Amino acid sequence: MASTQLLLLACLCLSASHAFTCRRFQSKSEVLVTVQDRWFTQRLDHFNGADTRVWEQRYYMNDSFSHSEGPVFLMIGGEGSANPGWMTQGTWITYAEKMGALCLLLEHRFYGKSHPTKDMCVENLRYLSSQQALADLAHFQTVMTEKLGLGNRKWIVFGGSYPGCLAAWYRIKYPHLAYAAIASSAPIHAVLNFSEYLDVVQASLSRNQSNCPGKIKIAFDTMLELLDYKENYLKISKDFYLCEVLVIRSKMDMAFLLDTIAEYIMDVVQYNNDNREFEGVKGGNITIQTVCDIMSNESLVSPYDRFVEVIQSIRKAKEEKCIETSYQQFIHDMRDIHWDGPAASGGRQWMYQTCTEFGYFQSSDSALQPFSGFPLSYHVQQCSDIYGKDFILPLVVDSIQQTNENYGGLNVKSSRIIFPNGLIDPWHALGIKTNLSSDLLAFPMEDAAHCADMYPARPQEPPVLLEVRRQIFEKLSEWLQL
Prior knowledge:
Residues 1-19 form the signal peptide. By secondary structure, the chain is α/β, with parallel strands linked by helices. 39% of the residues lie in helices and 14% in strands. It has 15 helices and 14 strands.
């Protein structure tokens, strides 16, 4: 796996690893809602008036709480199949019940069932961008306002992670349409080398036990020493339950192995103790506490043995039979352009967006964290290995610069945007952490994870989440004059 998918691919707070078509969910108010696929005729290219091609984009609607004086809530889909479970659960649904909101969720182009083109060849992927996605939202809102007779009802946009960026950018770019935005865990500053990601992983592990990341570093360094000798490859393959006996043919093979193993820890930190269970996500019972407790278990002889136990515990919790570490297989899968291909659930599409818009490459280049062996060059090389020889470093650098020029990065000039960020989550390093004005508000949350404020409340979560959800509701009520 490639670490640029970490945002994001479990992720995205709105994504799911499997698709739902017609499912029934029970809301807190015991209103039974049928969540069904709906289709909107969308433009292929919003920035070429001569291109009249259209396609069908999936969306969901819940009008159970809607009344004529209430707002319209628009949840923005992300880099995966839109999950209709969000139409009856989550913080925004709690707000909708209290505010009389109509709830809509628009799936992101090129993800889930929203297929603008016949396949995902590079020529077609040029229609996959955040700018096209924002224009999708604008056209959707304009048409739906007329179709549903919504008049002057105010639209509030919600999103988490990459869709959190889209929520903020929609308010910035289309202020005449979006009245306010809740941009949860939004990494709105695009960056080539996101080495700070692992710096935050180190800090978050240290919150639990100060020596925990140090023990992981010792274990990882031991693995690196074992990898110096081919006769150890079979042992490593057995220790980590690799799908095939390890073969290292190149620097990319080695980096992919190390990145894949490190991602198991990165994933635990990013989603530490969150409430993704209702989405069907496996492995949420493994937390930072679990990892650090195992790394301190002296009944296991060495830090390496403990690290192996950590990785196996995570693998089992995720119900994975083995760990795939073949770079050749990864590239083969990512090159598949078909909608039924092995990377069509979001991997090929999201990697394209990182190579052409965002970067976000989570390298091991920082010396302030426990991992090594997957530098920036490894991540950038994937762009050309997957999409072709034109996708090299200068193109990636220029694309990231254009993104920050277009949206402003951390220099947000707008109003009525809320930026919640969990401080355990490594992605908060690229987000807004302090208030920019009286109505550009940051809500930093101690002990909270990626998009944690969006999930349904539960008793065992950090108390700060209850307070932040309350404050966001009060601020929305103030802005809407409810």
